[in-house]
Amino acid sequence: MNFEDLNLSKELLRAIEDEGFTSPSEIQEKAIPTLLQGNVDFVGQAQTGTGKTAAFVLPLLSQIDFKSNEVQALILAPTRELANQVHEEIRKFGKNLDIRTLTVYGGTSYDKQINGLRKNRPQIVVGTTGRIMDLMKRGVLRLQNTKQLILDEADEMLNMGFLEDVQEILKALPVDRNIWMFSATMPKPIINLVNKEFKDPEILKIEKKSLSNADIEQKYFLIRPKHQMEALCRLLDYETDMYGIVFCKTKREVGEIGSELLTRGYKVDVLHGDLNQSQRDAAMKKFKSGYLSLLICTDVAARGIDVNNLTHVINFGFPQDMESYVHRIGRTGRAGTKGKAYTLIDPFQRGKLRYLERFVKTTLTPAKLPTVPQLKVALVNKELARMSNLVDSVMEKGDEFKVDETYDVFKESLQGLSKDQILKVLFSQKFRKDLRRYQDLGELDAKDTGEKRGGGRSFSGRSGGRDRKRGGRDARGGGRNNRSRTGGSRDRKQEDSGSKGSRRGASSTRKPRPRV
Ligand code: ADP
Ligand code: MG
Question: Which domains does the chain have, with CATH numbers?
Answer without folding.
Answer: 3-205 (3.40.50.300), 216-370+447-506 (3.40.50.300)
